[in-house]
Predict the structure.
Amino acid sequence: MEAFNLVKELVLLVDDFKKESLGTATDIDTFLEWLGSKRDFPSQQENYNITGHSLEVEIAAYIGRMGRYGNTYIKKTLEGLPFSTDMEFTFTAILDRAGEVGKTDLIRMMAYDKSSGMGVIKRLLKNGIIEEFPNPQDKRGKLLRLTKKGRENVRIAYRKVPKAAHLVTKELHVGEKRRLLRLLKKMDDFHYPIYLNEILPADLRQDDF
């Protein structure tokens, strides 16, 4: 009887899900996210302790804090290696996977701002982690690639950095991690084109303030 009641409740939930998801995907992962949002729906009395403003502002604040925590942990794990910042390692790791890449393309792959990205690249060049060479497809341009020193050190870093990544998500179980990753990917799919096009949505343009 308990199993029947559980199935009945599940059928009713699926019906509610379909009604609320008109025109959107209705796969099992989306249903689980929807179900989780119903179970986690905040009370009207929830306090926004960091910003004191709204749900959206509080989320943005927490995302920023998580990034700073992660950067601190990564820098600690990279002590002793020729990376002065976490971004130097991240640029090197992206270049290791991508192979030969132009400066601007590398920065855009990182979704980083141009001036700061150029600073990271200059330090990596100076420290002999990467090198630049003529682009065979464009004589006016140059490409970047890892040096032997860069490949050796990024391999060592690959063994260290997972410890920092594990610490960032230590309080989450596997299901929560997967759900969080799906949500972050969904957000990135929205924001990355805005970053690439360098055009803010209409409601964020300075003229509207």
The longest helix spans residues 174-197. The longest strand covers residues 138-146. Residues 27 and 33 are 10 Å apart (CA to CA). The domain at 66-167 is CATH 1.10.10.10 (Arc Repressor Mutant, subunit A).
